[in-house]
Specification:
The complex is a heterodimer of chains A (about 160) and B (about 575). Chain A is an alpha+beta fold and about 160 residues long. Helix content of chain A is about 30%, strand content about 45%. The longest helix of chain A is centred in the C-terminal third of the chain and has 15 residues, at about 130-140. In chain B, the strands form four sheets. Chain B has a six-stranded parallel beta sheet, with helices on both faces. Chain B has a six-stranded parallel beta sheet with strand order 11-10-9-12-13-14, sandwiched between helices. In chain B, strands 16-15-17-18-20-19 form a six-stranded parallel beta sheet, with helices on both faces. The longest helix of chain B has 18 residues, at about 340-355. Classes of the chains: A alpha+beta (about 160), B alpha/beta (about 575).
């Protein structure tokens, strides 16, 4: 079972190592991890995608909460949430493939952010299934390089 | 007035009430030692190895309940503390370890005696710090003591670079500290407490499972009152020993791999298991899937991660053991019409039957010295003086747990979680610094004693009158026992072919020592040891292949005990 945790942490040196160590020392798996500062001074948000059975996931939540540098643990699952990931995809292109690449990018509402004689660099944003989908379509056309950010997520506000 | 980092260090420790620092000096902490030289409030205890210094701080902390403090130098001084930190971390002991560090501009340059101790110690400390600015120093020390001693206690390390020790700033020690990501839960949820009380009151065969957390939170009186009021039998873990008087009729002794027959059987047949400050360690549970099969389980623990980690529990209750039990107590008044003695009779009768079926026993018909007999004799001779017993790790440790009758908490010092050979001797020395008026007995194996044997120097130098009893069988006995029982008697690398003459060794430090080989000498030799006013080492040559029984083989369920 996959789960996304979003944790708010103190922006101190060693925090990333503490979190990463928690996973490695207990044999838990990190599928993706993204970290960046948030608007409140001195704090960062880490979004971690992990998997495990119910008991493991419960332990991960508790263990994260136990870390002194962790201020808040948000667990995604029961409530509706938005998740997004961005990918930069550098494509080999030539006369025969350019049009097809552009069509796919257009369908997925991606952008071409860099062009050269024999390549396009594409930016695409969406949930992971969307990124996976565009990648599977672009794959046969020749992906040169790929960078994915890993997920970020947020709980949806309650609608009245 | 501005103070140097070194002076701030001293002033801060004074504010924390620190009496002793255990450690060894070195290049990166000379300035701290210079500041120590100029004052009399804090005494520095010079050990012979940094690992031992940390164990001394640990033994001081476990016996007194106050944080123990160690100070070592950078590089190898710092890396030598790792085993001590990991030992304290596993058993939740509040210690603060200061390590010297190379000057901040040199950090990361592979400077002389540089080690990334903050990185190395991260997995075996509750928290650690690198001080990068002298203005942060006093706040960091305050935080370190606060984190070490609150919630589930544990070791905290402060890495203290040499240039910070000589930088100056205004000294102000914070009165209070708040860390926004650290808010331990002390009081249990009242609704959950009500539910738990009801479940306990309605159970027929309840059993109290008391661990080290009960000792740490000093919940012994509350446990005693609950047990007595509702007539609930009690077993402890190794770490929980002393949290319930072992001479009480409701005491089942220790449970687990080398637990008593009655305690292990009670676990397997109880219908309500009330765990107080224990963590369902594999040495207690045996085969997890067959542990306490008929029981509803209540788990009281201050650390939420301990709950449902190894065993799914029915009633989790996060909070401080003492406070939770205190809150529970008045709720049992609603059941005051019940005659608990009568209600409990069938259960206690069953337990008594188990008790009489298989008592802890050993061979009494031999001229050789059997180690259990030595512990029994020591118990007999010392029970009135309420001593502290410190053990190493192995067979002798289990014999102490089985055959010494502990009646109070903080009287047994032993490395439970990590199982650190070399712990007991220095830990006992640390306890002696905490309680100069109390007898401290160190019970060691001939293998583990040699892991910190150099501390004979320390007790000689400070004339700390600890009493050492070596159970000498010429083996790494516990591993040998496993080899005998499960590995076809192939004693691979467990025979200690060359041993020092422990008597001559002690004497070379100016410490009185004696060796005995016959059972008939035991009582008289122990009397001499107890009465002697200075340090004393007794080398007891014991039956070579004596085993610890009962024994639950690793991975078996608790009712599968080897009894002889």
């Amino acid at each position: 079972m996959k789960r996304i945790y979003s944790i708010i942490v103190e922006n101190e040196s060693g925090v990333l190592s503490r979190v990463a160590n928690l996973f490695s020392a207990r044999g838990y798996n990190i599928e993706s991890l993204s970290v960046a500062p948030i608007d409140e001074e001195g704090l960062s948000r880490m979004t971690i995608v992990t998997d495990g059975n119910e008991q493991v996931l419960e332990q991960i939540g508790k263990q994260l909460n136990k870390l002194i540098d962790v201020i808040k643990v948000i667990q995604f699952g029961d409530e509706p949430y938005v998740e997004r990931e961005m990918a930069l995809i550098k494509m080999h292109t030539d006369r025969n493939t350019r049009a097809e690449v552009l069509r796919i990018v257009d369908i997925f509402r991606g952008k071409v952010v860099d062009v050269s004689h024999d390549s396009y660099t594409i930016e695409v944003t969406g949930d992971s299934t969307k990124i996976d989908a565009i990648l599977s379509l672009l794959e046969p056309l020749g992906i040169k390089e790929l960078a994915r950010t890993g997920k970020v997520a947020m709980i949806r506000e309650k609608k009245r | 007035m501005k103070l140097t980092g070194a002076e701030i260090f001293i002033e801060s420790l004074k504010r924390e009430g620190v009496e002793y620092l255990f450690g060894i000096p070195g290049g990166a902490v000379i300035d701290l030692h210079d500041a120590l030289y100029k004052q009399d409030n804090i005494k520095f205890i010079l050990t012979r190895h940094e690992q031992a210094a940390v164990h001394m701080a640990d033994g001081y902390a476990r016996s007194t309940g106050k944080p123990g403090v160690a100070l070592v130098t950078s590089g190898p001084g710092a890396t030598n503390t790792i085993t001590g930190l990991a030992t304290a971390y596993m058993d939740s002991v509040p210690i603060v370890v200061f390590t010297g560090q190379v000057p901040t501009p040199l950090i990361g340059n592979d400077a002389f005696q540089e080690a990334d101790i903050v990185g190395m110690s991260r997995p075996c400390t509750k928290y650690n710090f690198l001080v990068k600015d002298v203005n942060e120093l006093s706040k960091t020390i305050k935080k370190a003591f606060y984190i070490a001693t609150t919630g589930r206690p544990g070791p905290v390390l402060i890495d203290f670079p040499k240039d910070i020790q000589v930088s100056k700033t205004e000294f102000k020690y914070p009165d209070t500290i708040h860390i926004r990501g650290y808010n331990p839960t002390y009081h249990g949820n009242p609704k959950q407490i009500k539910k738990v009380v009801k479940a306990i009151a309605n159970s027929k065969k309840p059993l109290l499972y008391v661990g080290g957390g009960a000792v740490i939170s000093e919940a012994h009186n509350e446990i005693y009152n609950l047990a007595k009021k509702l007539q609930i039998p009690v077993f402890t873990t190794l770490m929980g020993i002393g949290a319930f008087p072992e001479d009480d009729e409701l005491s089942l002794g220790m449970a687990g791999m080398h637990g008593t027959f009655r305690a292990n059987m009670a676990i397997q047949y109880c219908d309500m298991l009330i765990s107080v400050g224990a963590r369902f360690d594999d040495r207690v549970t045996g085969k997890v899937s067959e542990f306490a099969p008929y029981a509803k389980i209540v788990h009281i623990d201050i650390d939420p991660t301990s709950i449902s980690k190894n065993i799914e529990v029915d009633y989790p209750l996060v909070g401080d053991a003492k406070l939770v039990l205190k809150d529970m107590s008045p709720l049992f008044d609603g059941y005051s019409t019940i005659n608990w003695k009568e209600v409990r009779k069938p259960w206690l009768d069953q337990i008594n039957k188990w008790k009489n079926e298989h008592k802890l026993a050993y061979n009494k018909e031999t001229e050789e010295i059997v180690p259990q007999y030595v512990i029994e004799k020591l118990n007999e001779l010392t029970k009135s003086e309420d001593p502290i017993i410190s053990t190493e790790v192995g067979q002798h440790q289990m014999w102490v747990a089985q055959f010494y009758t502990f009646k109070k908490p903080r009287r047994l010092l032993t490395s439970g979680g990590l199982g650190t050979m070399g712990y007991g001797f220095p830990a006992g020395i640390g306890a002696k610094f905490g309680f100069d008026n109390k007898q401290v007995y160190i019970i060691a194996g001939d293998g583990s004693f040699q892991m910190n044997v150099q501390e004979l120097s320390t007790i000689a130098a400070y004339n700390k009158s600890v009493k050492i009893i070596i159970m000498n069988n010429g083996y790494l006995g516990m591993v040998r026992q496993w080899q005998q029982l499960f590995y076809g008697r192939r004693y691979s690398n467990t025979v200690l072919e060359v041993q020092p003459d422990f008597v001559k060794l002690a004497e070379s430090y100016g410490i009185k020592a004696r060796r005995i080989r016959k059972k008939s000498e035991v009582a008289e030799a122990l009397k001499e040891l107890v009465a002697y006013k200075n340090p004393y080492l007794l080398d007891v040559v014991i039956a070579k292949e004596e085993n610890v029984y009962p024994m639950v083989p690793a991975g078996a369920s608790l009712d599968n005990m080897l009894l002889t």
